């Protein structure tokens, strides 16, 4: 396990000012996390499932069932979708949170956020255009057959340009690129952080109904007060103090 007593994993303290690959995190010892690493290696949110009401338990445990085939995206779009989700969420090996299936399910069922940007088509068309544009960029600018065919560094470069709104040729001309990034990331992150494996990774205790919370003290620092079901993380720096010192 990496030495987590030093803040060398903080981007601004590294020579390249980039975050290291998450493999520096400890191996998960209880429960499942994406790639079986995380800051809370001895935490498994499912151990508290008996405190959830039946409706909550049914909804959460259903997210652990093996995902079915995609219903919205085509077989031609699927490789780009998976490559995009893997890249933006740093999931490069199993186990993976099934984010592509989550996105696909929402789009297939028409479960949107209740609003739409005036200068974008609806989310279904936005996703299809983004995947087409990613493949075009990989081909035109990097000589790759597709975005999914590109190496990890090339994918990250394209994603960085997408996030900054710096792509403007081909299919990108049909989109407000920055807002398209927002649409895609909002749905991808919602799929990731609604899954119990992601909760294990961040030490989230899961639904608080009907259990509720017992502790009202601070959550960080030397006087931290934890709920009985919470565990200490593998790193002990106070994130608020780290930000105040300008280290991230």
- Average pLDDT across residues? 87
**Largest sheet at a glance?**
none
Computed structural class: mainly alpha
Task: Kindly report how far apart the N and C termini lie.
Answer: 22 Å
Low-confidence stretches: none
Strand content of the residues, in percent? under 5%
- Considering DSSP H and I runs of 4 or more, what fraction of the residues is helical? 25-40%
Shape: globular
Q: Report the count of strand segments.
A: 0
Counting copies of identical and different chains, the oligomeric state is single chain
Order of helices and strands: HHHHHHHH
The radius of gyration over CA amounts to 20 Å
Protein model, in words:
By secondary structure, this protein is mainly alpha-helical. It folds into two domains: 105 residues, no CATH class; 118 residues, no CATH class. Helix 2 crosses helix 5 and helix 3 crosses helix 6. The longest helix has 20 residues. The protein is globular, with a radius of gyration of 20 Å. The mean pLDDT is 87.
Outline of the structure:
The chain is built from 8 helices and no strands. The chain is mainly α.
Notable traits:
248 residues; mainly alpha; 2 domains; 38% helix; globular; Gluconate 2-dehydrogenase; Gluconate_2DH_su3
Give the topology, please.
Blueprint: H1 54-62, H2 78-88, H3 99-109, H4 123-142, H5 152-163, H6 177-193, H7 196-202, H8 239-244
Helix pairs in contact: 2-5, 3-6
């Amino acid at each position: 396990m990496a030495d987590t007593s030093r803040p060398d994993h903080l981007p601004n303290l590294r020579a390249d000012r980039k975050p290291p690959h998450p493999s520096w995190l400890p191996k998960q010892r209880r429960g499942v996390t994406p790639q079986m690493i995380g800051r809370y290696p001895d935490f498994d949110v499912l151990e508290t499932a008996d405190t959830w009401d039946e409706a909550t338990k049914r909804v959460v445990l259903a997210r652990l069932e093996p995902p079915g085939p995609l219903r919205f995206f085509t077989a031609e779009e699927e490789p780009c979708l998976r490559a995009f989700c893997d890249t933006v969420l740093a999931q490069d090996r199993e186990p993976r949170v099934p984010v592509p299936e989550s996105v696909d399910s929402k789009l297939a069922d028409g479960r949107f956020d209740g609003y739409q940007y005036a200068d974008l088509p609806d989310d279904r068309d936005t996703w299809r255009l983004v995947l087409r544009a990613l493949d075009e960029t990989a081909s035109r600018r990097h000589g790759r057959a597709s975005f999914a065919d590109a190496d990890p560094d090339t994918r990250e470069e394209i994603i960085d340009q997408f996030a900054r709104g710096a792509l403007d040729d081909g299919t990108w001309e049909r989109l407000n690129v920055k807002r398209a990034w927002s649409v895609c990331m909002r749905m991808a992150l919602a799929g990731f952080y609604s899954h119990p494996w992601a909760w294990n990774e961040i030490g989230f205790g899961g639904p608080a109904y009907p259990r509720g919370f017992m502790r009202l003290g601070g959550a960080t620092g030397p006087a931290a007060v934890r709920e009985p079901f919470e565990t200490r993380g593998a790193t002990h720096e106070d994130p608020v103090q780290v930000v105040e010192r300008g280290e991230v």
